[in-house]
Design a protein that fits this description.
- The complex is a heterodimer of chains A (113) and B (114).
- Chain A is mostly beta strands and 113 residues long.
- Chain A is 0% helix and 57% strand.
- Chain A is built from no helices and 11 strands.
- In chain A, the strands form 2 sheets. In chain A, strands 2, 4, 5, 6, 9, 10 and 11 form a 7-stranded mixed beta sheet that branches. Chain A has a 4-stranded antiparallel beta sheet with strand order 1-3-8-7, with no helix packed on it.
- In chain A, a hairpin with a 2-residue loop joins strand 7 and strand 8.
- The radius of gyration of chain A is 13 Å and the shape is globular.
- Chain B is mainly β.
- Chain B is 0% helix and 49% strand.
- Chain B is globular.
- The termini of chain B are far apart.
- Classes of the chains: A mainly beta (113), B mainly beta (114).
- The interface between A and B is medium-sized, with 27 and 26 residues.
């Protein structure tokens, strides 16, 4: 099974709301990633977890808060977002070595009103 | 720093035409190189990869060769189909990375017409 699942598929939220995105993989991968992708642009790395610990934070605003409850799950908590945060949020996982393939989920399409 | 440069699109071809999408990179040492494809409304999926110089990655009729001397990893396919219409991303993973971090090029949109 090489599937990464993400929920929800679509999310609409106001600027005062709190919501969470969820990602799950059952491939035994040790690294998990959050990316943000705007239309017609490449994915931008936000966070990397390695062995359930935050390894990379690419200077992401604190209104995005990642969490890795266990080796299979990755959450992204959202609070007080801005309309410019509207984007496709992609989760990925891999074994974490530079030669390894990253497996991507289908993404969550987020709209901030 | 490390970076990837792809040819700008969109690229529009007729079915059965030959495809080349250029990709060059800047990195110290020997990065791993990848081509990912994104179909409309979906996430990215690996198309092919090469992890050392002179390696050739291939999949579904697509090929790319890791050329250290020209720092390139051009994507080719001999005969494209309408179903190949998608956005193609060239990416590298730096040799220093211990997290598998990817650095992407800007992406090239391919449209294949019947």
């Amino acid at each position: 099974d090489t599937e990464v699942t993400q929920t929800p598929k679509h999310l609409v939220m106001g600027m005062t709301n709190k919501k969470s995105l969820k990602c799950e993989q059952h491939m035994g991968h040790r690294a998990m990633y959050w990316y943000k992708q705007k239309a017609k642009k490449p994915p931008e790395l936000m966070f990397v977890y390695s062995y359930e610990k935050l390894s990379i934070n690419e200077s992401v605003p604190s209104r995005f808060s990642p969490e890795c409850p266990n080796s299979s799950l990755l959450n992204l908590h959202l609070h007080a977002l801005q309309p410019e945060d509207s984007a496709l949020y992609l989760c990925a996982s891999s074994q974490g070595r530079r030669t390894d393939t990253q497996y991507f989920g289908p993404g969550t399409r987020l709209t901030v009103l | 720093g490390d970076s990837v440069t792809q040819m700008e699109g969109p690229v529009t071809l007729s079915e059965e035409a030959f495809l080349t999408i250029n990709c060059t990179y800047t990195a110290t040492g020997y990065p791993s190189l990848f081509w990912y494809v994104q179909y409309p409304g979906e996430g990215l999926q690996l198309l092919l990869k090469a992890t050392k110089a002179d390696d050739k990655g291939s999949n579904k009729g697509f090929e790319a060769t890791y050329r250290k001397e020209t720092t390139s990893f051009h994507l080719e396919k001999g005969s494209v189909q309408v179903s190949d219409s998608a956005v193609y991303f060239c990416a590298l993973s730096p040799p220093s990375s211990n997290t598998g971090k990817l650095i992407f090029g800007q992406g090239t949109t391919l449209q294949v017409k019947p």
